[in-house]
Write a structure and sequence with these properties.
Number of strands: 0
Largest sheet: none
Radius of gyration: 18 Å
Structural class: mainly alpha
Order of helices and strands: HHHHHHHHHHHH
Number of helices: 12
Distance between the termini: 49 Å
Shape: globular
C-alpha cells in the first residue's frame, strides 16, 4: 500500500476510535520512513530541530533547509506526518509519555523543514500540549499552546486553510477544557524540569511565550468560548456529521455543564 493510503488508513482508524488498528497500520509505516531517511544519511537521533548555529545564521522561525535537498525535506516531512499520526493513536490508547515523545520529534522535524508558522507544526505542538496535560504538566503544556497560537494569529488560516484552522481551534479547546477542569478539581499542576529540551528550543519558547502561561487565569468562560469557536470552525470545514465536529460539540457540552 502506498504511503499516503497507509497514512490515511491509520488516521481513519484513529478518527473512528480504533486506536489499536491505527497503531498496527502506522508502526510499520514509521519504520519504513525512518529507514528511508537513514538511507539518505538523515539522522533522526538526538536533535531534530535546527541547531543553535542555524538559528543564529538564519531566521529563527525557519524553515532550515539550506543544507537539505527537496527530496530530503519530503522524506523528513513524511517521517513527521507518521509520527504525528501515531502519536494521536497512542494518545487514544492513553500512552501519553510515548505519545508526547513522538510529537516532540514531529514538532522538531516540522520546524526544521516547514517552519514554525506552518499549520502542521502548530497542530503537533498543540497535540503535544494535550498529551502533557494528561500528565498534569500544565505550565509546560500551556507554554506550548502560547507558542503555537503566537504564529496562528499571524496567518489567516480561517480564510486560506479552514480545515487546518478548525483542527487547531479544536486542539486549543481540548487543552483549555482539560486544563480548567484539572486545575479546579485536582489543584496545582505538576512540574517538570526543562533539561530535556535542547537549548535552542528553550530559548525559542522563552522568546515566544514570555510569562503568559499561567493556567490559573483560565476560566470556564474561556473554555466555553473556545469550544464554541471550535464547533463553528469544524462544522464549516468538515460538516456537521464529521467526528471532529462531534468532538467539538462534546467539548462545548462539557464546558456548558459548568455554568
Amino acid at each position: 500500500m502506498a504511503f499516503d493510503d497507509t497514512l490515511a488508513l491509520g488516521q481513519l482508524h484513529t478518527n473512528c476510535g480504533d486506536f489499536s488498528k491505527a497503531e498496527a497500520a502506522l508502526r510499520p509505516l514509521l519504520a519504513q520512513t525512518e529507514k528511508k531517511a537513514s538511507g539518505r544519511g538523515l539522522s533522526l537521533a538526538g536533535r531534530t530541530g535546527p541547531s543553535l548555529t542555524e538559528i543564529f545564521r538564519e531566521n529563527a522561525e525557519g524553515p532550515f533547509t539550506s543544507r537539505l535537498s527537496p527530496v530530503d525535506c519530503d522524506v523528513l516531512a513524511q517521517v513527521a506526518d507518521v509520527q504525528h499520526a501515531l502519536g494521536d493513536a497512542l494518545y487514544g490508547l492513553r500512552r501519553y509519555v510515548e505519545c508526547e515523545r513522538l510529537l516532540y520529534t514531529a514538532v522538531g522535524l516540522r520546524w526544521r523543514v516547514l517552519g514554525a508558522a506552518h499549520p502542521a507544526r502548530m497542530l503537533s505542538q498543540l497535540h503535544r500540549a494535550r498529551a502533557l496535560g494528561r500528565r498534569r504538566l500544565w505550565v509546560e503544556a500551556l507554554s506550548l499552546v502560547h507558542d503555537a497560537l503566537a504564529f496562528r494569529d499571524r496567518v489567516e488560516l480561517e480564510r486560506d486553510s479552514p480545515r487546518d484552522d478548525a483542527l487547531i481551534r479544536l486542539a486549543h479547546a481540548e487543552v483549555t477544557v482539560a486544563a480548567v477542569r484539572s486545575l479546579q478539581e485536582e489543584g496545582a499542576s505538576r512540574s517538570r524540569g526543562v533539561g530535556m529540551f535542547p537549548a535552542p528550543v528553550v530559548r525559542f519558547l522563552d522568546r515566544t511565550v514570555g510569562n503568559n502561561a499561567r493556567p490559573e487565569r483560565l476560566t470556564w468562560d474561556d473554555a466555553r468560548r473556545l469550544a464554541g469557536e471550535a464547533v463553528r470552525a469544524c462544522d464549516g470545514a468538515f460538516g456537521s456529521d464529521h467526528p471532529h465536529t462531534h468532538a467539538a460539540r462534546a467539548l462545548l457540552e462539557r464546558a456548558g455543564c459548568q455554568l
